[in-house]
Amino acid sequence: MSFQLRREEVLDGDSLKAMLDESPARAAQAILIAARENILEAQALLGQILLDGQGIAQDHPLALRWFEIAAQRGHLMARNMLGRCHEHGWGCAADASVAAGHYRIAAEAGLDWAMYNYANLLATGRGVMEDQAQALHLYRLAAELGHAKSMNLLGRYLEEGRVCPRDLTGARDWYRRSAVGGDFRGQFSYAAVLAEAGSGEEALIWLRKALAGGNLNFLRVASKSLANAENPQFRTLAPEYAQRVIELERQLTPL
Q1: Which H/E stretch holds residue 4?
Q2: Torsion over CA: 196, 197, 198, 201 (sign)
Q3: How far is residue 226's CA from residue 92's CA, in Å, rounded to a whole number?
Q4: What is the sign of the dihedral through the CA atoms of 18, 21, 24 and 26?
Q5: Taking the complete model, does pTM exceed 0.85, yes or no?
Q6: Pairing mode, strands 2-4 and 10-12
Q7: What is the mean pLDDT of the chain?
Q8: What are phi and psi of 12, to 5 degrees?
Q9: Do 82 and 67 form a contact (C-beta atoms < 8 A)?
Q10: Distance CA 62, CA 58 (A)
Q11: pLDDT single digits (tens) 41-77
């Protein structure tokens, strides 16, 4: 897919995404032009930059509208993001049942992110009846497609033997694959099983990777877990996790 800008410059979807990192305002202008010219990928991308406020003024209701337009035309990630908006109340009233409907459509069409998001609702009973077996099925499908966050959760089901036979070897392998795939929770999980196996030094490497990539909610929980760890080397990381929590909280506090 490609489209032509008014200055006769031709860009495709990947080029626009790269441009967002280099020149967000210029990319946003190009995306807006393409979306108005009915380019499907640009319509979905416009919804995302409006949601994030990347190169353009943040506008959640308008982001929701562009996701709706792209989703109606068959864009699976836009359908997934429509679910995210309804789940979290971005540009609309939060409604997990509506979100579940959008996730289910995209999941059934094969989108790994939608499988993961729909499984999260099924696992917690938000917006749908709780169904751990179906959640596990979706996590496994997404993991087999290469979705790192789903790999970590599949590992947790296998480690705990939740609605499936307990499989510690399988759990360790999925944690490893999740960690290598870049999921900070998977990196923390993999570090835990490495520590139990006596590979403390390797575990520390993954704990530092999780620290570098972790979000605020994860780091809050992880810092407390490390503070209570039996391994003294792990306990020494707890202050670093706590300091990162403070830094992220400051970023959220208006000046």
Answers
A1: strand 2-4
A2: negative
A3: 38
A4: negative
A5: yes
A6: antiparallel
A7: 92
A8: -105, 180
A9: yes
A10: 9
A11: 999 999 999 999 999 999 999 999 999 999 999 999 9
The pairs formed by 201-207 with CB atoms below 8 angstroms and a separation of 24 or more are 203/234, 204/233, 204/234, 204/237, 206/179, 207/234, 207/237
Which tokens hold the place of 62?
Answer: 């308008």
Q: What is the mean pLDDT of residues 233-239?
A: 92
Buried b (16+ CB within 10 A) or exposed e, 83-110: bbbbbeebbeeeebebbbbbbbbbbeee
Would you state the structure tokens that stand for residue 232, as one six-digit string? 């003294």
CA distance 61 to 134: 32
**DSSP 8-state class, residue 2:** E
Residue type, 196: E
For the chain, what's the residue count?
255
For 130, which DSSP code?
-
| pLDDT value at residue 6 | 38
Beta-ladder partners of 10: 4
Phi, psi at 11, each rounded to 5°? -135, 145
